[in-house]
Amino acid sequence: MLDSPDSPDWVVEQPGLAALALVSSLLALFVLLPYLQYVLFGVVLAYIMLPVQHRLEQYVRPTVAAIVVVVATLLVVLLPLVYVVLLAIRQSLRLVRAIRQGQLDVETVEQVLETNGYAVDLVALYEANQNRIATGLQGVTTGAIDIVGGLPSVFIGLTITLFVLFALLRDGRQLVAWFQWVLPIDDDVLAELQTGLDRLMWASVVGNVAVAAIQAVMLGAGLAIAGVPAVMFLTVATFVLTLLPLVGAFGVWVPVAAYLVAVGQLTASAAVTGYGIVVSLSDSYLRPALIGRTSAFNSAIVVVGIFGGLVVFGAVGLFIGPVVLGGAKLVLDSFARVHTGEPIAESGPEPTETPDDTEPPADANDDIESDG
Questions:
Q1: What is the pLDDT of residue 75?
Q2: Mean pLDDT, to the nearest integer, of 293-315?
Q3: In whole angstroms, what is the distance from residue 282 CA to residue 202 CA?
Q4: Residue, of 121 and 213, whose pLDDT is higher
Q5: 197 and 98 in contact (C-beta within 8 Å)?
Q6: What is the pLDDT of residues 238-273, one digit of tens each?
Q7: Which of 209, 191, 236 is nearest to 45 (CA)?
């Protein structure tokens, strides 16, 4: 990074240029805000697919490699993801309609409970609260639809995601080098921040999202074999609950097992219980196998980051939210160390993607033009 005058002095000496930089940055942020969650989704996908891009660049040009990765991501990740979400929403709405119309066979459940010695007027209880149950479930479904957005918004947003993914895959090195040149931060502090953010992204994307996806697919497959209805809705619910500490897949398979007992399917309930325990315990093996023992996040950062991220960033906030909170702590730690004059902490292993060249963006622009 080039030597530059002290930042406060430079701002005083160049007030017009400093004001222009601030205004232009704010305007750019306003342009990004309507589709910020899709831009961030593209950033996350680029982070995940970057190793594939580097492998392909050994055989073809960066532009061709980026096109191949984008097409593969669309076919393997995005289209199946949209299908699963739409199917889960449809099953949820169908369940809401069944509850409102009184189509659930509550009398059979009540008879089974009476046979086992539990005298509960379940029919009256259900009739008195069916509107509340349906309203609550519909509220969750409507909230999910609001987070994802309507179909036109999703189509435009996913298009933006694909273009962001392509640009970052092809020109990611130059973009990182440009940020390093623009930001008025010392090289050692910048390297520490880059390493810490890389660890945060890896722990959030792999440690939370990948493990949650694996456990959701495992439990969903077991529920489908057991003949449980609304499997796709339960699979998506498992994915969301598995992201939360101390909840996980228990929040889905325990109620399902209880439901199967209530309707008299004792064998299926026992099978779901045994398989659910295996799925829940797999977290202890999957997480260390994928990311090792990490202290990147604590429970408070994960829970607050997930729910706050959903409100601020939309669906992508499930994994961006914890990264934002963890990154804020990392930046404040670095600021405090520099302010107090303490030495920079050991950065440990190099981040996944560290540019080899941090010269001014003139060279970076030349590289972008040559790759384009």
A1: 92
A2: 74
A3: 19
A4: 213
A5: no
A6: 988 888 767 788 888 888 888 787 777 888 889 999
A7: 209
Q: Are 274 and 249 in contact (CB under 8 A)?
A: no
Tokens encoding 302: 């994960």
Classify residue 29 by burial, with Cβ atoms within 10 Å: 0-12, 13-18, 19+.
exposed
- In sequence order, the 6+-apart residues with CB closer than 8 A to the CB of 76 are none
Name every residue whose Cβ is closer than 8 Å to that of residue 51 and which is 6 or more positions away in sequence.
352
Tokens of 306: 């997930």
Burial class (CB in 10 A: 0-12, 13-18, 19+), 233: buried
Q: Which two tokens mark 160?
A: 């933006």
Report H helices in the chain.
Answer: 7-13, 15-32, 36-56, 62-73, 79-100, 106-115, 122-148, 151-182, 187-202, 211-225, 231-242, 250-262, 266-281, 283-291, 299-313, 317-340, 361-371
pLDDT value of position 132 = 54
- 37 pLDDT higher than 80: yes
